[in-house]
Amino acid sequence: MTIGVDASEAEGAAAVLAPLGRVRIGGGGRSVALELTDGAAAVAAIVELMRGVGIVPVTITVARPTLDDVFLRYTGATIEEHDEHAEHAAAAVRR
Question: 20 to 30 A from 32, CA-CA: which of 46, 60, 63, 88?
Fold first, then answer.
């Protein structure tokens, strides 16, 4: 699930949502990704939780995890970040 927020509220939203699952700030600081088993069932509770601390979500998107989401979960990096790291390591070896 991705929750769009005002950029000034991303850190606060992440802190409020952290007890519910794995969170990550993205979208240039304008969204919080939250991993949940059943995100659709949790939408109303998440809105209430956030409004309780004065944060009004701009958007909420519930989607199945992508391959990149799964890769991030198990490696701690996106596929692009992993590829960039591999390119830098290969370049260092060639020198």
Answer: 88
Whether this prediction's pTM lies above 0.85 is answered by: no
Ranges of residues in the chain with a pLDDT under 70 are: 82
> For residue 91, what are the domain limits?
65-95
Which 3 state secondary structure label does DSSP give 77?
coil
Asked if residues 5 and 51 have their Cβ atoms less than 8 Å apart, the reply is no
Q: Are residues 46 and 87 in the same domain?
A: no
Q: Angle 17-38-76 (CA atoms, 0-180°, nearest 5)? A: 60
Name 35's bridge partners.
22
Distance (Å, whole) CA 33 – CA 57? 12
Q: Are residues 15 and 42 in the same domain?
A: yes
* Unique residue bearing structure tokens 């802190």: 15
